[in-house]
Design goal:
about 350 residues, alpha+beta, two-stranded antiparallel sheet, 12 helices, about 50% helix
Length: about 350
């Protein structure tokens, strides 16, 4: 998804205003900063080559001087020039980098999201806040994908299986919104498998087989339906006959054999779930699975819905907390614009699956 020039111009203007008011006496040379690595590499290489050539000429001119200290002194001077130039250029670059990072640390980037939602996004979506926490929390039994497995477990089953801690980190940011006057949240939760909580023997085996204190990051979309459904169930990728048997849950039988090849459905009331998963909804889900070449599990508890959009979202968290500072103000503005566009695309992706499940009036 692309954001409009209006939002991009707003970000640039705000950055320039921030620089003028917060750092009035500091200057950055963007042309040098942009090509720093190229300039540094070529300049140092040129210094070294010139030093070697000059050394060769001097040694040739002093050919009849048989002092062993002469070449050592010459190469020492050449190396000194090389190191001195490197230190000078690096310190200059470091000042520019610190300046740009200070700008990033002083950004009130939340207002950029507010502006983008207001001017670039669906008018049916109202931006409430963006913070490390869900206003509408994921359903406790939301499906999670165990690492290196193809089987989806409920969160309760995962706790019994791997003893994880599920928590919000400071960079687990969440869009808390209203969509068609109903609460909607989109964001990440981090799950940490703490091997120290296990006994010594199991801890040693765990260290040998897997990473210690491994963290997994899950991207959830939660939505509050306008009407109560009375349904408690989940739709997950097909687990195969053996896993269905081992799970000790009865898979609901629906009217589409093609749908049942790629999805498993478990619920408290097969009659009610068929009213949700109509033939049209099943066709929509199949089409969307073919479009994105992946499946999004869904769990519903009466009038609350949770979608697991990604089981590996560690590098796709919302917000600008991990944004590259950029080489200059234009690059910073572009990085901010691109990240906002990416986050809005993620929201679009979640809403597309929500609509495919037939859960949006």
């Amino acid at each position: 998804m692309n954001i409009t020039n209006k939002t991009k111009d707003y970000i640039k203007q705000d950055l320039n205003h921030l620089v003028a008011t917060t750092f009035p006496n500091q200057k950055v040379k963007p042309r040098f900063a942009k090509s720093f690595y190229y300039v540094l590499g070529w300049l140092l290489l040129a210094i070294w080559i010139i030093g070697v050539i000059v050394s060769a000429i001097i040694l040739s001119a002093l050919n009849n001087i048989h002092s062993w200290t002469t070449p050592i002194i010459i190469y020492f001077i050449t190396g000194f020039l090389f190191i001195g130039a490197s230190i000078f250029l690096f310190s200059f670059y470091r000042r520019n980098k610190n300046y740009l990072m200070n700008i990033m640390n002083n950004l009130n980037w939340l207002k950029y999201y507010e502006f983008a939602f207001k001017h670039d996004y669906n008018p049916e979506v109202t931006f409430n806040n963006m913070k490390p926490g869900f206003d509408l929390k994921p359903i406790p039994s939301a499906p999670q994908l165990q690492r290196n497995k193809t089987v989806f477990h409920t969160m309760a089953e995962s706790v019994a299986f791997a003893n994880p801690r599920v928590f919000n980190r400071n960079d687990d940011l969440v869009f808390n919104l209203e969509f068609k006057n109903q609460l909607l949240s989109l964001g990440t939760l981090t799950q940490e498998r703490d091997a120290l909580a296990l006994d010594v023997a199991v801890a040693v085996a765990t260290r040998m087989l897997t990473d210690f204190n491994k963290q997994d990051c899950f991207m959830y979309l939660t939505y509050q339906l306008a009407k109560e459904t009375g349904v408690s169930g989940r739709v997950i990728p097909n687990q195969g006959k053996l896993e269905q048997y081992l799970s000790r849950h009865k898979n609901d039988q629906l009217e589409s054999s093609e749908f049942e090849k790629i999805f498993d459905v478990y619920s408290n009331d097969p009659v009610l779930v068929r009213k949700l998963l109509t033939p049209k909804v099943m066709v929509n889900l199949i089409d969307l699975a073919n479009k994105y070449h992946r499946l999004v599990p869904m769990i519903i508890e009466n009038n609350e819905v949770t979608l697991l959009l990604s089981e590996n979202a560690i590098n796709n968290k919302l917000g600008l907390t991990k944004l590259n500072y950029g080489d200059d103000l234009d690059k910073i503005a572009k990085n901010i614009s691109d990240k906002i566009a990416t986050d809005l695309f993620t929201l679009n992706y979640g809403l597309e699956w929500l609509a495919a499940y037939g859960l949006v009036d």
